[in-house]
Design goal:
Elements (H helix, E strand, L loop, with lengths): L13 H8 L3 H12 L3 H18 L4 H7 L5 H12 L3 H5 L4
Length: about 100
């Protein structure tokens, strides 16, 4: 099975991950806190940012990265990056178009 970290857009919600695991969302949320010391939302953002960095290093354009990560628009991806790191993707990842 492929690593979930390599498929960050596979499930956009805790409920989706829980359904695949055959557990309740409450159980999965508790396991995130116990095992990773964080909740699902911040963990997922970190995974998305890490994957975006990898794709940016490969020379992918920001709109392509946004689509690969499951964002409906490049502006939604830009908002997430800016909220998370305090800089827009072009500045944070380096200029990639």
């Amino acid at each position: 099975m492929r690593s979930r970290a390599r498929e960050p857009s596979r499930h956009g919600t805790l409920e989706g991950w829980a359904a695949e695991a055959g557990a309740s969302a409450r159980t999965v949320a508790r396991l995130f806190r116990q095992q990773l010391g964080t909740s699902f939302g911040p963990w997922r953002r970190q995974v998305l940012l890490a994957r975006a960095l990898t794709l940016a290093a490969q020379g992918k354009a920001m709109h392509v990265i946004a689509a690969d990560l499951g964002y409906a628009s490049a502006s939604a991806f830009t908002a997430m990056v800016t909220r998370s790191v305090g800089a827009p993707p072009g500045r944070f990842f380096g200029s990639r178009g």
